[in-house]
Task: inverse folding
């Protein structure tokens, strides 16, 4: 698997599984009918933030991560990083999410962030919660009924934290 900086041209490879994940409405707070241009602008971040893709051995985009300061740069909370991840559901269970998360942790350390905070990890997304916890993240709080899940109704969202 190759991890590299995303380019504008990578949107064509990201968009199919991005759309599938967003339309499912189970893990992201994005509108389920999010338009293509808006989705692209929300996901492909300009520097100094960063978006990467994971490619399989055939050069297909199978996952992606965006990473950024959790709060506006230059402010009193800009020392905290954040990130979001998407793995093509057709390629889940192959370690792509772990590799993306490890890449984000390395980026945050190298960029001088003090910690990483995930603001809204849906509590029913147990695979992601277990992955993050296995990498040292802790749940520092849960917002009750903070997410409207299409199958489970109102469920909590975890705030997760990893000191660097």
Result:
């Amino acid at each position: 698997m190759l991890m590299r900086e995303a380019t504008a041209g990578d949107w064509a490879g990201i968009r199919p599984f991005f759309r599938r994940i967003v339309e499912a409405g189970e893990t992201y707070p994005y509108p389920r009918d999010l338009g293509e241009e808006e989705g692209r602008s929300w996901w492909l971040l300009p520097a100094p933030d960063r978006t990467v893709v994971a490619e399989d051995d055939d050069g297909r985009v199978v996952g992606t991560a965006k990473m950024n300061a959790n709060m506006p740069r230059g402010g009193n909370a800009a020392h905290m990083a954040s990130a979001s991840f998407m793995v093509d559901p057709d390629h889940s269970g192959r370690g792509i999410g772990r590799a993306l998360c490890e890449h984000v942790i390395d980026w945050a350390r190298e960029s001088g962030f003090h910690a990483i905070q995930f603001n809204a990890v849906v509590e029913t997304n147990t695979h992601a919660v277990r992955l993050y916890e296995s990498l040292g993240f802790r749940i520092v709080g849960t917002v009750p009924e903070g997410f409207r899940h299409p199958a489970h109704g109102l469920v909590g969202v975890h705030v997760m934290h990893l000191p660097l």
About this structure: The beta strands are 2-5, 50-55, 61-69, 80-87, 115-122, 138-149, 153-163. The chain has four helices and seven strands.
